[in-house]
Amino acid sequence: MNVLGIEGTAWNLSVAIVNEEKVIAMVSEAYIPKEGGIHPREASQHHAERMPILLKKIFSIFPRDKIDAVAFSQGPGLGPCLRVTATAARLLSLKLSKPLIGVNHCLAHVEIGRWMTGARNPVTLYVSGGNSQVIARKGGRYRVFGETLDIGIGNAIDKLARKFGLPHPGGPKIEELAKKGEKYYSLPYVVKGMDFSFSGLLTAAERLIGKARFEDIAYSFQETAFAMLTEVTERAMAYLGYDEMLLVGGVGANERLQKMLREMCEDRNAKFFAPPKQYMGDNGAMIAYTGLLMLKNGQQTSLEESIVKPNFRIEEVPITWS
Ligand code: ATP
Ligand code: FE2
Fold first, then answer.
1. Counting CB atoms within 10 angstroms of each CB, which of 14, 108, 181, 304 has the fewest?
2. Which residues surround ligand 2, an ion (CB under 5 A)?
3. DSSP readout, 60-99?
4. Is the full-model pTM beyond 0.70?
């Protein structure tokens, strides 16, 4: 079975084809804002312009008549971007007369992570621009055991970078600065039960600008935020008694975060898993692969049900595979 998947919830427009064994092809084009953060309408225009080009490209690598289904990310994400992606997917599905599958974007991050690493039943830390969640499967659903009460960690990092005068996305640049940090400034560490929050931490870090070196601010911010995420992940593992942990989402590329989590896992004799970098951030392969899993287990999406869901939650999807 060959499934085509389209991802376009935010900055990355990405189209991929997978089968049960491997990613056959993937082509992507990132929207990079001219200034400031991601502008939803601009991003959607980017996706609309580039969609035909990416589809042409992927069908020059793999013949369209061998596609068995069309999957797309149905949410969560930016409304205008989701609509472009869904429209393209509906058209393709009609044109090829193949089933349509609306995929939850968060679920897709988790499933490609499991596929790429071989993790069976992990506690997943999903950290991206818009999302920060600790997720684990219990019975027939994935459940969110802890999450941010305000902004995603990637969003907080990108905002801090912007205050430093650095272009979007700020994550990799803040990571480089933090590596040169020497002095730790105490910043608000906000964990409430199993949830956490980053806006107070961000404001406090921004207030240090002019008083401390950028390197030290970046370092202090990362140490604080990543310790919060590690604490909540560890608590979920202890509560559930799971001995695997999986790191996914764009922020998962951060080496310092990986190191903290790996050490936590070593301390509890648990296994740490992280997929290759190109499958951590948003990508078409994760949508195609999750679509394949859903289709194999009898789930598909009618045209009426294919309406975009900007606030789609992972708990809403029944999990009928192992
Ligand atoms: P979602 O829709 O799931 O919220 P997203 O649109 O934010 O996803 P991702 O590709 O999952 O997309 O994540 C992008 C985020 O990852 C950005 O905020 C970016 O700054 C951050 N990021 C990328 N590399 C690093 C890094 N090395 N360290 C920290 N953050 C990083
Ligand atoms: Fe994402």
1. 304
2. 128, 282
3. HHS-GGG--EEEEEEESS-HHHHHHHHHHHHHHHHHHT--
4. yes
